[in-house]
Design a protein that fits this description.
It is globular, with a radius of gyration of 19 Å. Strand 2 and strand 3 form a beta hairpin. Helices cover 19% and strands 31% of the residues. The protein contains five helices and 15 strands. By secondary structure, it is α+β, with helices and mostly antiparallel strands. It has a six-stranded antiparallel β-sheet, with no helix packed on it. Strands 4-1-15-10-11 form a five-stranded mixed β-sheet, with no helix packed on it. It has a two-stranded antiparallel ribbon with strand order 6-7.
Length: 226
């Protein structure tokens, strides 16, 4: 094989590898709750999911600071304008930006570092709906948060339809870690969440036991009320 032929083959292989690692990821969002959930996604917008319905959402490689969550108690008009009891986002079915706490979050960054995706379930914005979040390739960690957090929520964190994180309620560095890395740690409130959902973020700097990685190019599944 000549030099040009070798170079062309090498270029094609590099192009193929680039296409494989930069393709969009599919997120299969499933509502198993016995009630309607209005899924929200940033990026992605929103979708009404009645019991048993699925929304397949494509997200481009390289997307960071992304999240998927469920909204409850929503009422939208024919133009998709309205509000939700939990997880409301900009007053519409099609979310522009993040939801209002309390809401259980599936967070992710695709192909962010060393050809890896990073993903987590976060309770830093509180909890409203039980959730599973996991890659579909079978080789990465499945995250679950299915405890009765709403029913057991401390009185001072209770909200209509959900349970607030203490940062939302008290807005201090002790709970919000606003003064930078290492400025806060676990509290009795964060332990309430961590004891019930060990794999989920219970406060903003709860990285060691709450952030997971999977090879870039994976597809994912988010299940409400698994």
């Amino acid at each position: 094989m000549g030099y040009i032929a070798k170079l062309s083959l090498c270029s094609l292989l590099m192009l193929f590898a680039s296409l494989v690692t930069t393709q969009a990821a599919n997120f299969e969002i499933v509502n198993n709750c016995p009630y309607t959930v209005w899924a929200g996604a940033s990026p992605g917008g929103g979708r009404r999911l009645d019991r048993g319905q699925t929304w397949n959402l494509g997200v481009n490689a390289g997307t960071t600071r992304a999240r998927i969550w469920g909204r409850t108690g929503c009422n939208f008009d024919g133009n998709g304008q309205g509000h939700c009891q939990t997880g409301d986002c900009t007053g519409g079915l099609n979310c522009q930006g993040y939801g209002v706490p309390p809401n259980t979050l599936a967070e992710f960054a695709l192909n962010q570092f060393a050809n890896q995706d990073f993903y987590d379930i976060s309770l830093v914005d509180g909890f409203n709906i039980p959730m599973d979040f996991y890659p579909l390739n079978g080789g990465c960690h499945k995250i679950s948060c299915t405890a009765d957090i709403n029913g057991q929520c401390p009185n001072e964190l209770r909200a209509t339809g959900g349970c607030n994180n203490p940062c939302t309620v008290f807005k201090t560095n002790e709970y919000c870690c606003t003064n930078g890395q290492g400025s806060c740690g676990a509290t009795n409130y964060s332990r309430f969440f961590k004891d019930r959902c060990p794999d989920a973020y219970s406060y903003p700097q709860d990285d060691k036991t709450s952030l997971f990685a999977c090879p870039a190019g994976s597809n994912y599944k988010v299940v409400f009320c698994p």
